[in-house]
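Bug #77: duplicate submission created two jobs. Keeping one. Sequence:
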Amino acid sequence: MSDVVTSASDVVTPVVPARKQRVMSGMRVTGRLHIGHYFGALQNWVSLQNDYECFFGAMDWHGMTTAYKSPKEIAPWTREMIAEFIAWGVDPEKCTLFVQSQVPEHIELFMIFMNLTPMGWLERVNTWKDAVEEMKANDTHNLGRFAYPVLQAADIAIYRAQKVPVGQDQVSHLEISREIVRRFNHLYKAKLPEMTPMLTEIPLVTGLDGRKMSKSYGNTLYLTEDSEKDLKKKVNMMVTDPSRVRREDVGEPTKCSVYGYHKLYSTAEDLQWVEAGCRSAGIGCGDCKGRLAQNLEKISAEPREKKKELLNNPTQLDSIIAAGSAKARKEAQKTLDIVRSSMKW
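Kept job's structure:
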C-alpha cells in the first residue's frame, strides 16, 4: 500500500451529467403522412432527439375517434407511420418510439383524469366549437372527440414530460393539459410535472390547389410518394399564378403555390432563378414545376427506399415497435405507481 497522502485539492470529483429534460410528442394516426406533418412536427423531432430525452408516439387511440367505422385500417396506418418516422430521421436508438395502444397505461390515466375534469373546460376548447358542424356532417361528433384533450393530457403526463413541442395555434390546447395536471396535483398533493410548450415555428404549407392541405380536399402531397413518377404527377397538378395564361405572360411568384414549395425545398440560387424567370416570363410554369420536382426527388429518394425496406421487413419493424413500446410502458408504469400512491388507491 502506498504511503503517499493525497491532499483534498488532488481529489477529482466526478462530474455528474445534468439530466436531460423530457419531451413528449405524438401524431394522430389518420392515414398517410403529408409534407405538412414533416414541417409541423417531424423535422423538429429529428433535431430534439439529440438534446432531450424524447418520447415520440403514433397515437392510434386518437385515430379511432374518426376512423371508428373502419378500425381495420388503423393498424397498417400505424405501422406505415412508424416506418416513415424512421425513414425521415427519427432514431429509435436516440428516443423512445412507441405505439399508443401498446401502452395501456395511457387509457388508465385518461380514465382518472376524466373524472376530475369539468365538462366546461372541454366545452370552451376552440377546436371543438369550431369543428362541431364538420363533425356532425361526417359523423364524428362523438364523446371521443369531445374528450380528446383529456386523453392528450394523459398522453403527456404518463411520461412525466416537461416539454411539448407545439405551434403557436396549439398553445391553448396544451393549457387544458396543464390545468388537468394542476387539478390532479392539487386534489391529491401530487407532483406530476406541469408540461410547458416548446414553441415551434411552423411554415405555412398549402395544398396542391392553394388551399389548406387536407385529406378531405384531396390536395395533399404525401411526405413519401410511392415513386418519382407519382411525385412529378402531384407537382404538375399544383396551381400557379392565374395571370400566367400563356407562356409569354409575366407572373408574380408570391401568388403561386409552386413558389411556396420552392422556398421550403430549393436552394437560394434556385429561388432567384424562379423569381427572376417568373417575373420576366423567362421561364414557364412547366420549367418551374420541373425544377421543384427534381429538388423534391433529391430529398425524398433515400427516405422512400428506407420506408420500403422497413415495410418489406415486417419482423424488423415489429421488433422496433415492440421494443420502443415496452420501454415506454416501463416509464408509464412508474407514473401510475406515483398516481396511485398519491391517490392512496
